[in-house]
Amino acid sequence: MFQSETNHQSGHHSPLKSLAALLLVSAWLLGWASAAAQGSWPPLNGSVADGTGKLDSAAVNQAAQSLQALGAKPLAILTQTNLGYLDDQQFALTGAANYGLANGSTVDPNLLAVVVVLDTRRSNIVYGDNLKPAMEQRPASGGGTVADQIRNNYLNPKLASGDFTGAFTDSFSQAARQISLYRNPVPTATPQPAVVNNTQIDTQGIGNALLIGFVVVIGLAVLVIGGPMLYRRWRSGQDAAAKRRTLQEQLLQARNVTADMITNLDFPPDPKEQIQYKFIALALQNERPQQLAQINSQYREIYNRLANALTVFNNLNNTPHNSDQEITSAIAQYQQVQSEVKGAEAFLKYLSDTSNQLETQVSAAPEERDAAKKDMAAATDALSRLAAAAPDLYSPEPSRLFAVVNSKLSETANALAARPSMPLRAYDNAVQARSAAGSILKSVGSLSQAYN
Asked: Where are the beta strands (DSSP E) in 9-99?
C-alpha cells in the first residue's frame, strides 16, 4: 500500500479544528513528528540501507551487481519513517547525499536509487543523467516510460504484497536489462537480394510448355476456389490476434489500476492504527460505547473482505493467463478486487464524515442546551396564557409536565461540568430535552387553537 513516484535528478530541483476531547491526541501527534525528525539514516551494507530489517541484503546486493557491471551505482533505501522530511523528493536527495551519491540537489550521473518509506507508504525511483536516456525511453508495448513500467509492473505489486526483497531485486534486475538493451540493441539482419540466373534457357520444347500451362490452369482453379477460403482464415487469424492484444492491454491496465488503488489505501489490520478511527474512538469510548462498537465491527468486516481481495490480487499476479477466456476472467477478478478496495475507501470516507459530525456536535452542545431552555420557557408561557384564557380547562402542574425536560437539562449540565467534560453526552441529552420541550409547546398551541 505505497504511493510511488519516479524522479530524474540532473542537478536542479525543479482542518480539522481541535476537539476539546482530542487535545491529548494532537499533542501525541506533534510529539511523534518531533521524534521522527530526530531519526538517523540506516547503515549502508553494500548497496543496501535497510532501517527495518525486512530486506535480504545479500539478495538485493546480488541483484545490484548487474547494474554495477553496466557502470551504474545502485542504492536501495528502506526506512520505517521519512525521518521528518515532508517532501519525498528532498528525502530521496538527502538519502543519496548521506551515502555519498549526491551533493545538494545534484546527484551522481550514474545513480539508480530505489527509496521506500513504510509509514508514509511512499516510494521513489531516482536516476542520474547518464541513465536518463535508457530509463525514459518509451517501449512499443506502451504503459509510459521504462521507469514507469518498472514501478507499475515490478516495484508496486511486490510492495503491495509485502515482498520487500522481491520489490528491490526485481526493480534492479529489470533496470539493468533495459539499460543493457538500450546501450547494446539487438542487430537487425540485412536482407540479401535474391540471385537471378538469367543464363539458363528453356529448351524442353512444347511438352514442357503444355505441362506448365496445365499446372497454371490448375493453380488458377485452386486460387479461385481456395483463395476466398484462405483469405477468410487469414482474416479470422488477424481478428483473433487483435482481440488477444486488446485483452492483454486491458489485463495490464486492470492490474496496474488495482495495484495503484491498493498502494494508496490506508487500511491497517488493527483499527487502532488508522488515524480517523483513533479520533473517533477517543471521542466515543466513554460517551457512546455502542456506536464505537458498531463502527469497530464494520471496520473488521470490511478488512476481512479486503484481505481476501488482496489474496486474489496476489494469486492473479502470479498466475499466467494464456487463453482469451482466462484473460477475460482475470480482468473480471481484478475489477472485483477494485470494487472491494472502493468499499474500503467509502468506509474511510464515512469515518472522516463521522469525525466531522462529532466535532460539530461537541461544539453545539451548549447551543442545544440553550435552545431547549428557550423552548421550555416558550411552552411555560403558552401554558400560562392558556390557563388565563380558559380557566375552565384542566391545567397540569408545570413541574410534572416538564419533568422530562428538566431531567435531561440536568444531565446536560452534569455532563458539561464533568472533569473531563462529556460534550457528546451533553449534546444527546440537550437534543432530547429540546425535542420534549418542543413537543409540549406544539401540544399547548394545538389546544389553544382548538379552544379558541
From this structure: 48-50, 73-79
The span from the CA of 312 to the CA of 282, in Å, is 35
What does DSSP assign to residue 272? G
> What are the CA-CA distances from residue 168 to residues 50, 129, 204, 437 (Å)?
11, 21, 73, 67
Q: What is the pLDDT of residues 175-218, one digit of tens each?
A: 999 999 899 887 765 666 555 555 555 556 687 888 888 888 89
Q: Please list the alpha-helical segments (H only) found in 396-422.
A: 398-401, 403-417
Q: In this structure, which amino acid lies at residue 291? A: Q
Residue 141 is predicted with a pLDDT of: 72
* Alpha helix stretches (DSSP H) within 206-286: 206-263, 275-284
What's the pTM value of the predicted model, to 2 decimals? 0.45
- Tell which residue, 161, 348, 138, 118, has the closest CA to residue 255: 161
Contact yes or no for 425/287 (Cβ under 8 A)? yes
Element at 123 (helix H, strand E): strand 122-127
The closest alpha carbon to 341, from 264, 253, 255, 278, belongs to 264
Q: What is the predicted pLDDT for the residue at 277?
A: 92
**Could you state, in chain order, the average pLDDT of each consecutive group of 10 residues for the chain (452 residues)?**
61 39 33 44 94 94 94 94 79 89 89 90 88 89 84 89 94 93 77 55 70 87 84 88 91 94 92 89 89 93 94 94 92 94 94 91 90 89 80 73 90 90 91 92 84 77
Using CA atoms in the order 216, 221, 224, 229, what is the torsion angle rounded to 10 degrees? -110
Integer Cα distance of 102 and 105 in angstroms: 7
* H helical segments located in 264-323: 275-284, 289-317
Q: What is the CA radius of gyration of the chain?
A: 37
For residues 421 and 443, give the distance between their C-alpha atoms in angstroms, rounded to a whole number: 34
Q: Which residues contact 294 (CB under 8 A, 6 or more apart)?
A: none
Strand ranges of the sheet holding 122-127, from the earlier edge strand across to the other edge: 3-8, 122-127, 111-117, 73-79, 48-50
Residue 272 CA, distance from chain mean position: 19
Query: Which among 279, 249, 299 has a CA at the least distance from the CA of 359?
Result: 279
